[in-house]
Inverse folding.
């Protein structure tokens, strides 16, 4: 069963913080891909910048992920990764209301994420019940390298979805 994380973090309004938030969004996929592939449980992840109501600048960062399993074991996997800890420290540094005291352990990390998560498991609609491992197989170096290539040899269709013939998905969808 997949679960949602919708982490909403209002950020400071100074020029340096605003520039760092833009850079974080621009570099997001490249910076997290290896860790997410290694986890073998993340279906989707994205970082969105929430604009200020005035239209000038960024109000908040919104990290949205869909993953297999329960929240705290998911967070523990990423806490144990030094790169993820650094990314979290970067988000905490941009936060308008950073965690106090500063996060130095798994419990503090879990508390901050859970406090700022806008969703609970029952908020997520899912059209399928397969895990990432059931969809693409268990994580391996070879699988991660293949995933970077993105498309299969047959007409550019990806493993996860549609076919180049008529738009039907492997789940039995039909052409519209």
């Amino acid at each position: 069963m997949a679960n949602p994380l919708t982490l909403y973090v209002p950020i400071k309004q100074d020029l340096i913080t605003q520039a760092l938030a833009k850079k974080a969004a621009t570099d997001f996929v490249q910076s997290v891909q290896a860790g997410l592939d290694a986890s073998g449980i993340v279906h989707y992840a994205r970082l969105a910048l929430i604009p200020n109501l005035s239209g000038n600048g960024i109000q908040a960062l919104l990290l949205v992920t869909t993953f297999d399993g329960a929240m705290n074991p998911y967070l523990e996997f990423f806490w144990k990764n030094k790169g993820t800890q650094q990314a979290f420290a970067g988000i905490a540094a941009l936060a308008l209301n950073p965690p106090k005291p500063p996060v130095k352990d798994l419990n503090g990390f879990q508390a901050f994420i859970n406090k700022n998560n806008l969703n609970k498991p029952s908020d997520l609609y899912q059209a399928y019940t397969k895990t990432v491992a059931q969809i693409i197989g268990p994580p391996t170096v070879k699988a991660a390298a293949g995933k970077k290539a993105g498309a299969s040899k047959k007409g550019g269709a990806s493993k996860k979805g549609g076919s180049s013939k008529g738009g039907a998905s492997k789940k039995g969808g039909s052409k519209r």
